[in-house]
Design a protein that fits this description.
300 residues
Length: 300
């Protein structure tokens, strides 16, 4: 039952992330990328904090014990990874379109198992690798470019995928040590908001009236994506290891493409539909093959 809840949390989280690409893209008509992220994640922090006070404040002593420093260090690493990944993705949307950004973001799918294997020396179920290939093929088919030119925006998103990978890995580590998903969600959104505010004040015009023009996009990206979706990610990774989790999260490319079709009237051609199918097959493969193999071993 707990595995099912984690899978549902991962799918809902991924749906929110995918549809948020639209809000991220349309929310920069009047403000800069760091201003958008600063306000977005601060709103996410404000949305989560009351839940922390309501549900987790009594857990602090039992969870921390004598290991508060580890929690703070991991929280900072997670927040820093989230800041770098989201900042690069947000800036990239100035130079590339939603489909390309969604595709190159899912480069964390192969990066997570590779990094995890190199640093943790942990064996990975063989089904991860064909699933990774299917997800990358599917992601490519979701894009609407047909040449090998990698634009500036695409390069920024690829670099950002490295930090999305470390974010997933660090989250996987901390959820095995502490049962404080809301606290972690609040901590990481506050760190991203703080860093984004500093850069926005230095390099961008922080104008209240201009921010209010983008308030709908900011609220969607802030409350749902910047706040609750990352808490759902933490819940999801309680029972899903980082490599399969990354494959499930790659469905955000599918949701982003469908949202672009539905909201922005972008046409879905046969390649886009095939891309959705490839990614869906990759996700199912990563989840079902280990279960089938485990059941077969139990029968022996």
């Amino acid at each position: 039952m707990s595995k099912t809840i984690s899978l549902l949390s991962a799918l809902l989280c991924t749906f929110i992330w995918g549809t948020t690409f639209i809000a991220q893209d349309t929310g920069m008509d009047n403000i800069g990328p760091f201003t958008f992220n600063a306000v977005r994640f601060f709103i996410g922090f404000l949305a989560i904090t009351p839940l922390v006070l309501l549900f987790e404040i009594k857990k602090f002593k039992s969870e921390f014990k004598n290991d508060t420093k580890t929690f703070l260090n991991l929280s900072f690493l997670i927040g820093l990874s989230l800041f770098l990944g989201s900042a690069l993705q947000q800036v990239a949307l100035l130079y590339t379109d939603v489909a390309n950004a969604a595709f190159f973001t899912i480069f964390y799918v192969p990066l997570v198992p590779i990094i995890f294997f190199l640093f943790k020396r942990t064996s990975i179920h063989w089904s991860v690798w064909p699933s990774v290939v299917l997800c990358l093929i599917g992601g490519y088919l979701l894009t609407n470019f047909y040449d090998a030119t990698v634009r500036l925006g695409d390069s920024l998103v690829i670099l950002g995928a490295l930090f999305w990978s470390t974010h997933i890995i660090f989250t996987g580590i901390i959820v095995n040590k502490y049962n404080l998903p809301l606290t972690l969600g609040a901590a990481q959104t506050f760190i991203v908001a703080l860093f984004s505010f500093v850069i926005a004040f230095i390099y961008e015009e922080f104008v209240y009236l201009e921010i209010m023009k983008e308030i709908n996009s900011i609220l969607y990206a802030g409350i749902l994506s910047g706040g609750f979706a990352f808490v759902l990610q933490i819940y999801a990774q309680k029972n899903i290891t980082p490599a399969p989790a990354a494959i499930i999260f790659s469905l955000e490319g599918v949701f982003a493409t469908i949202a672009a079709w539905f909201i922005l009237d972008q046409i879905l051609d046969i390649n886009n539909l095939l891309g959705c199918l490839f990614i869906l097959c990759g996700v199912l493969l990563s989840q079902l093959l280990p279960l089938v193999q485990k059941n077969n071993l139990n029968k022996l």
